[in-house]
Design a protein that fits this description.
- Pfam families: Peptidase_M4 (PF01447), Peptidase_M4_C (PF02868).
- Keywords: Hydrolase, Metal-binding, Metalloprotease, Protease, Secreted, Zinc.
- Residues 171-332 form the Peptidase M4 C-terminal domain.
- Extracellular zinc metalloprotease.
- The chain has helices at 12-20, 24-47, 86-106, 155-170, 177-198, 251-255, 261-274, 276-289, 296-312, 320-330; strands at 7-8, 59-63, 73-77, 118-122, 131-133, 138-140, 209-210, 225-226.
- The chain is α/β, with parallel strands linked by helices and 338 residues long.
- It has 2 domains: 7-170, Elastase, domain 1 (Roll); 183-330, Orthogonal Bundle (Neutral Protease, domain 2).
- The strands form 2 sheets. The chain has a 6-stranded mixed beta sheet, with helices on one face.
- The relative contact order is 0.11.
- Bound molecules: zinc ion.
- The site of zinc ion has 5 residues, from helix 4 and helix 5.
Length: 338
């Protein structure tokens, strides 16, 4: 049992900034997101915790037919031939790739480790500028074509959102302040790893961007975020890459999409030293070992312990502990000795 999480790929401050410039679809997405969040909160208040139904990790693709509703019409399920709708086929392919990555790499049986069916809703709303995981399924808009497009086709977006599901079931990090920034961080970590695997890129070929393929030419930037250079992906990107610039404001659930830039940069630096596969295993095992209220210091303590254990077990490079220590020190995080 665990509490349900809710996360959108496009952060509220980007939608707000675009809405202020007159993009009505961004304003609509923002309003709809808030309405949806309120509705989910009501459901949560009623349920608080619920049992999730185990399945076979099968994919189900539903077409919302441009309504603001989920599970309207089932258009493709596990094993079915491709449909006429390319968005449905893409959602089927990308969600399967993410599910299989976690299974093949870490032995995780679907998103919850218990064969949860992987449900995707496509064509949600009219020109809806977002995609979200709401606790047990995925939902994708088509984008307005002005600023955003193709949410269900973007492997990093799909992986980022499904990784929120993995986090929900493995450590249940709460979605605010530092635990929330870690929650966002882990989604960017697996979003970028899975994107590199999907595109068959090595770490020097990769762009380390999140959401580059969902933004149009008109969008004022190249992506939503950059793990290599936090704060540079677009005009509104205020992600810090060091604790010296830590965001202390209240917006964005106390900066969950903002302060995630700090551990994101540490992940990027660690990958340069020990590679993405060793980092993937270390980060995955760390996620399993974390807990709901874990902050950045807990993350560092845990990841160093996990890296040491995996090194002793011969599963990762001997230099893993040093690499992670350097990388976190580079972003202003060092272990607090008590
Ligand atoms: Zn997210």
């Amino acid at each position: 049992m665990c509490t349900k999480h809710y996360c959108h790929i496009v952060p509220p401050y980007i939608l707000e900034a675009l809405a202020k410039r007159g993009n009505s679809s961004c304003k609509k997405a923002l309003n709809d997101s808030q309405r949806f969040l309120e509705r989910r909160r009501t459901v949560l208040n009623n349920l608080m915790v619920r049992e999730f139904e185990d399945g076979n990790g099968d994919r189900f693709i539903y077409d919302s037919q441009n309504k603001n509703e989920q599970r309207v019409a089932l258009v493709r399920q596990e094993g079915d031939d491709p449909t006429q709708d390319e968005t449905a086929n893409k959602a089927y392919e990308t969600s399967g790739f993410v599910r299989d990555y976690f299974k093949d790499t870490f032995g995780l049986d679907s998103i919850d480790g218990n064969g949860l069916d992987v449900i995707s809703n496509i064509h949600y709303g009219q020109a809806y500028n977002n995609a979200f995981w709401d606790g047990d399924e995925m939902t994708y808009g088509d984008g307005d074509g002005e600023e955003f497009t193709n949410f269900a086709s973007a492997i990093d977006v799909v992986a980022h959102e499904l990784a929120h599901g993995v986090t929900q079931f493995l450590s249940n990090l709460e979605y605010q302040s530092q635990p929330g920034a870690l929650n966002e961080h882990f989604s960017d970590v697996f979003g970028t790893i899975i994107k590199q695997k999907y595109l068959k890129q090595n770490i020097s070929e990769a762009d380390w961007l999140i959401g580059d393929s969902i933004v149009t030419e008109a969008f004022p930037g190249v992506a939503l975020r950059s793990m290599k250079a936090p704060g540079t992906a677009n005009e509104f990107d205020s992600q810090p890459d060091n604790m010296a610039d830590y965001y202390t404001g209240m917006s964005d659930n106390q900066g969950v999409h903002i302060n995630s830039g700090i551990p994101n940069k540490a992940f990027y630096l660690s990958c340069l030293e020990i590679g993405i596969d060793d980092c993937g295993l270390i980060w995955f095992e760390t996620l399993k070992a974390l807990f709901r209220t874990a902050d950045f210091n807990d993350m560092l303590d845990t990841i160093l312990r996990v890296a040491q254990e995996l090194t002793i077990a011969g599963k990762v490079s001997d230099s893993s502990v040093d690499a992670i220590t350097h990388s976190f020190a580079e972003v202003g995080l060092t272990q607090v000795m008590v």
